[in-house]
Write a structure and sequence with these properties.
This protein has 410 residues and is mainly beta. The protein has helices at residues 2-25, 375-407, and strands at 35-41, 59-66, 73-75, 82-85, 89-94, 97-101, 107-108, 114-115, 121-127, 134-140, 155-161, 184-191, 197-206, 212-219, 222-223, 233-237, 252-257, 265-275, 282-288, 296-301, 306-311, 316-326, 334-337, 340-342, 351-354, 362-365, 367-369. The chain has three domains: 2-69 and 372-407, no CATH class; 73-148 and 295-369, no CATH class; 155-288, Sandwich (Tick-borne Encephalitis virus Glycoprotein, domain 1). The strands form seven sheets. Strands 5, 6, 9, 10, 20, 21, 22, 23, 24 and 25 form a ten-stranded antiparallel beta sheet that branches.
Amino acid sequence: MAFSTSLSGVNAAQSDLDVISNNIANSSTTGFKTGRAEFGDVYAQSLLGTTTPTPGQGVKVIGITQQFSQGDLEFTDNALDVAINGDGFFQVKDQGVVEYTRAGAFKIDKDGYISTVSGARVQGFQVDATTGAVTGNIGDIQTQTALLDPKATTTATLTGNLDAGASEPATGTFSATDPTSYNFTTSLAVFDSKGNSHTLDLYFVKTSTANQWNVLSYLDGVTTTGGATTPAISALPFSTAGAYDSTGNKGTVSLTQSVTGAVDLTIALDITGFTQYGTDFAVTTSAQNGYSAGQLSSIEVSDTGLVSARYSNGISASMGQFALADFQNPNGLQPVGSTNWVETYKSGMPVLNKAGNANLGLIQGFALEQSNVQITQELVDLIVAQRNFQANAQVVQAEDAITQTIINMR
């Protein structure tokens, strides 16, 4: 029996060596989790059990467990290199097969999908095409590789101050080309339905009535309302304290102008944020909601896994949000290669959430999680496994010598 007992020890030591060698081989593999061989002793027992001590029959491998401790983070120059700092797994899908990984070395494939190096598409919470808000639906994360469609300006908002000490212009009849016929002017770029840029000019004219101004608007040098001297906003009122007077709601107006080869521009202008204080004229903020067509220039990933695309026209749009999976028993996951795992009965079903929620880790952009293999510990374990192998092999030799002695008895 000593032969079979020692042979089980040799096999167990060999399995230990196999696990250690696999750990060492993957010490530089992104997202790899070290394994550990677990052993149990073997005893023979009848159906009725036994009341007398019996020698054991060796050892067996009862499992190889994975250690899901956090690996060190290595920072990179790739925006789609992402690491999970804490618990959780990325969910990826390849031709319908769902797998899980900690290796976040992602790329954009030829169709614009965020995928792994092996081509599996990374799964995430989808974005509503109308509102741009992240929904609860899970699917492939696709970036906009084609030109981003332009958007015509529909709203424009300006805030600032009109000098309360200003006098009426010297020239009574307004002319955009005559600086003596208005007090102040400012402009901003707006866009038509094809993404072409146009200049919206606003002219502020102090009236003879205290605390009132006229505002005239021109698009590319052409008045947007009535005749050339008709104010877009007539008698813009301010209180005696200098704040905008909302009486009559005269701080907003709809400006309309035809554009050759494009849809007519209609812009809701809001200048209710202007004040009239005794200081120089200044525009504090200027904003409008249109933009030209844009090409994808960069990808950004937030610490909650929100993937945003930035375009050459300055627009940033959400593409999706990485879905992180959590398992009741991560050690029950089955490794399938390429640093991926699949769900099993022992692992339990995955629970998907966003990074930072439900005790899940946060996402670190421009970084990769390294293997959690500790080389020093593995080398020590290697010495122990080698010693166990040699000791069990020595038992085989001893049993062989005893057997030979018995055979040679006369």
